[in-house]
Specification:
Elements (H helix, E strand, L loop, with lengths): L2 H21 L6 E4 L2 E4 H26 L5 H24 L5 H23 L8 H18 L12 H23 L1 H10 L1
Antiparallel strand pairs: 1-2
Helix pairs in contact: 1-2, 1-3, 2-3, 3-4, 3-5, 4-6, 5-6
Length: 195
Amino acid sequence: MNLANRITLARIFLVPIIMFFLLVNVKTPHIRIEQFTITYNQIIAALIFIVAASTDSLDGYIARKRKLVTNLGKLLDPLADKLLVSAVLVSLVEMGKLGAWVAIVIISREFAVTGLRQIALLEGRVVAASKWGKWKTGVQITAIIALLLNNFPFEFIHVRFDLFASWVAAIITMYSGFDYFMKNKDVINWNEQKQ
């Protein structure tokens, strides 16, 4: 259990804490500025999410720099990312801040690409992260933060950035999934030929 894996595990342990602040009805005061309203719970959840999301690059960087790349890390890192994003998306749907279809598209893509990676791994191949996969992660995190913060600060200029970011996240997520499968379709074809 090295430092990189500990950081990844910390990201997993932050997931239920974020969900607690989002879903458990804890009576906390609201912050009100003109027409904008947000609870302290949402602010705390957003801050924890930002910390958790930022550790995604940190654990990978530490593992590569210190040569601490392990099989456990290869398993935990993508699992932690998917748990974090999926849990917050489901919470946002429950709170009425996100359409269920957006969450379904994003979560389905994550499962599909994970399945593709597992098939490739069984054949001794590694499906590397693509530029679209990196864009997808960045846009998803941006959309989630905007939703968690009730569209702050764009609410003051009456721009639905949170809605726009959610749509962009769904579109880029679908495209990046399609891109992974097109670039690695030989993995599936090879398995079919083998059978």
